[in-house]
Fold this protein.
Amino acid sequence: MQKDRRALVLFSGGQDSAICLAWALQNYSYVETIGFDYGQRHRVEMQVREAFLCHLKNDLPTLAKNLGEDHRVDLTGFGAIADSSLTAERQIAFNQSGLPDTFVPGRNLMFFTVAAALGYRRALHHLVGGMCETDYSGYPDCRKNTLEALHVALCLGMDENFSIETPLMYLDKAQSWQMAQDLGGEALVALIIEHTHTCYLGQRDQRHDWGYGCAACPACDLRARGWAAWKAQA
């Protein structure tokens, strides 16, 4: 525990950000959360994040004892500008570089900038996100060097000593499942399976061992393969 340190977690309602929230609760003396409505085509992630926070407080009160206020920010205008298959009704496709058009250009840059503005006002100087460049879809704004550059800009632009923490940056999905187990045991793993959402198609009508989803999109594929690898190691 890093005493007297206050953190703000970018909590989307997905698996990775849920694990990062648990990590922050063990490593900081006070934690708030922030979620963004950026016009995503599937509203389910905004719904499950509220359920997850509620169940976290009820089912894991010791872990959640440092959890404070949740903030929901309207960025629907940004989503309309940063057009992608996550904000428009169309099939997921891949460009010539192999990057899926689920990439919302500038999304993480915008998220951290807004989070820093809120953190500035509420004295939450440690910004925590679930970005990862090991098991991911190739998004350039998930890379460590991108976030290091943004960190410098935020500190200079707000004249404040922020930190950007990405505890999953170099973990694969199997290792992230193990982190969840280490942080909160079977109770946290069960909570992530039942009350997080990662599927790009927004499907929650079918429950798999690893959670709900279509089992076909890139996000579901990563989650399922990570689960299988983790279970194979057990």
